[in-house]
């Protein structure tokens, strides 16, 4: 009986810790992604692809792919903007300038940073 009680307490502790850590989970929830706004592309044209690649992760290295997003404005070097949240009240925006070039990586993150500048 003592072993069963100890096991039950241990299981209850694990379940409680799992519930606490899940409540504090900080993962990416994409709000919007736009590829080529500087060239006249529609707002949000990269949202679907960005969501597929990054939602639910704590950090995501996103490389825009014209085959997945589309490229209606071919003759222009495009920028990329991503908007995401980590919690209900924590919003972020990151951007690649057109000069960054093809195969550039935009990093989205919900990892809390400490130290200088943070």
Automatic annotation (TrEMBL):
Kindly state which keywords UniProt assigns to this record, in alphabetical order: Signal
Asked whether the UniProt record includes Signal among its keywords, one would answer: yes
Could you say which residues form the signal peptide? 1-25
Keyword Signal: yes or no?
yes
Protein name, per record: Lipoprotein
